Amino acid sequence: MRRGYLMDVRVRLSETDALGVVYYGQYFTYFDVARLEMLRRAGVTLVFLRRKKLGFVAAKAVCRYVSSAKLDDLLTLEAAVAKIGTTSVVYSHRIWKGKKAVAEGEVTDVLVGADGKPKGIPAGMRAQLMKCKR
Q1: Measured between alpha carbons, how far is 121 from 58 in angstroms, rounded to an integer?
Q2: How many whole angstroms separate alpha carbon 77 and alpha carbon 98?
Q3: Is the pTM of this model over 0.85?
Q4: 5-130 CATH choice from 3.10.129.10, 3.40.367.20, 1.10.3470.10, 1.10.3720.10
Q5: Contact 79, 91 (CB under 8 A)
Q6: pLDDT for 81-108, tens place per residue?
Q7: How many angstroms separate the Cα of 89 from the Cα of each of 17, 44, 80, 111?
């Protein structure tokens, strides 16, 4: 079942390998594109984070490849907040080609301060992230 933030992208030549199939590492870029747009819509932008001297760093990224996507395919990217911890956020991601699943995964980000050390997610930011929860 599809839920969360959805957006469409068309596979470009630069995202494929020599066989015209989407390069496996590209799926993490697709995850990132959908996640950042979802967060932008919730008000958690890079500008917002910089003003607070905070940032998110990736702690874990996992992808399971279900089927292939090729040059010019129209893909639907899905992103949602799966879990909010004290200092971290787990995002779930799915990629679809029509009704067919292509990939699914999770990315865990940790909120850090300017010193690079984990920081507790402030209540206001937690409320903004909850808007993205599945």
Answers
A1: 15
A2: 11
A3: yes
A4: 3.10.129.10
A5: yes
A6: 999 999 999 999 999 999 999 999 999 9
A7: 32, 13, 10, 8
